[in-house]
Amino acid sequence: MFSPSIQSLIEEKADSFIIPASRIAFVEDENPLYHAFLILTKMKYSKIPVLDRKQKVVGLISLAMITNKMLTPDNIVIEPLSDLKVKDVMQTEFETINFAHTNFETQLHLLVDNPFIPIVNDNNIFQGLLTRREWIKAFNYVTHTIDEKYNITEKCVSHEEN
Amino acid sequence: MFSPSIQSLIEEKADSFIIPASRIAFVEDENPLYHAFLILTKMKYSKIPVLDRKQKVVGLISLAMITNKMLTPDNIVIEPLSDLKVKDVMQTEFETINFAHTNFETQLHLLVDNPFIPIVNDNNIFQGLLTRREWIKAFNYVTHTIDEKYNITEKCVSHEEN
Question: The domain at A4-149 falls in which architecture?
Fold first, then answer.
């Protein structure tokens, strides 16, 4: 069970959890790989969402996925950057979150193995990102406020009960 | 103040917080950039520590730092990968943590703006990494166990006191 007191504190911060789509760098699946190489070189995010023309999230792409295509047994080559499209290289297996149907427990669980999760609506349209960074901030808030708002006392457990 | 009850729960998990140096990919400052390009393309980490020959942490390097050197106004070129060394490209401003002198509050605070922090000993020798992922796991543990071990009741605050 997710602690009700921690849940209550996090709900105070939940609005600031989502990094809205308008603030997120993304690329389109039909873009040449060259374009994603430039965006990822210039942005601070190491992996970004890939959208189709209807703003649906169809993949994720990182620089490592791109540079992996540039490796040949003998050399590093730049031709794949113009020969391939983002959709040829992107990761297509990934988690998404629909905030309407996902509780905190699931969000936190997904963030153990994913630095960020794309948020979508019921039509799979990209809404923004949930990130580990925002949860670290929320956890920071919880650790500093829980004792102001709650009385917390250790439960007395007898040795027999253990 | 960092909540004592949460601190106590996290201390149960603190040993597993550090990813030991033996499990971390790193490069050396004198390596050709080509080497870092290969390591970062093949590893899951988007940024890794740079060590000198004495195992001291002297920098951090990401694929984006490398690919940024490959951009010219007209083209993407591979020559910098053999012409430059890791030390010519790495980030030299970064935080480190010495576990002997750093409390949980400071660790959590540093992880807001850094996905990971290199851990060093008193001689600045690399010991491992502290990561957001490990703290997310710890937070997950706290949210599921705090109500088993503690009685938590909301404080009664009169409207006058607010």
Answer: Roll (3.10)
